Fold this protein.
Amino acid sequence: MNEKRIRAIKHSEKIDYVKVNAESREILNISATLAKCWKFAYQGIINEAYLSSLQDDHWVAFLEKKITENSVECIITKKEEQIVGLVIFGESITEEYPDDGEIHSLYLLPEFIGQGIGPLLFDMAERGLKEKEYKHHLVCVFSKNKAAIQFYESHGFKTVSTGNEIIMGEQKLSYNIMRKARKCDDE
């Protein structure tokens, strides 16, 4: 495996944190994990017809392109050989903030939520965006996803735009853009 292993010191369980590169054989597994996570996380937010239509390979082309271009980084967490969570971050794909760093995805399989893995992945993304010297970090969150909004607010993000819309299947969904300034080294 040509992936870079990352040591996480806060977690007591045997969880591997792996930085995925363009040669990774995990892209389909990452996409399949995203599909599982979406089906859980967005129950009651995105209509069931759209969620059930998500195939395991739904995000493969996006991941292959963005990782190959080095415009995003992907870190996965694995327990034994199963991907249990991931974070994808890098250059912004949000038109209003093209110069920001963006956390595109932060997901865990439901049975791993609340075990401290999510905050570790989040910290890795924040450090990665800081290393790339982005002055601001941003996330886009569905307006009805109160848990995610609270999570990002607890990490210093502020809502800067509401009422943005995206169409998924036949459903129009509203999302918030949340943003925060990068911390200086002396803070």
Notes: The longest strand covers residues 158-168.
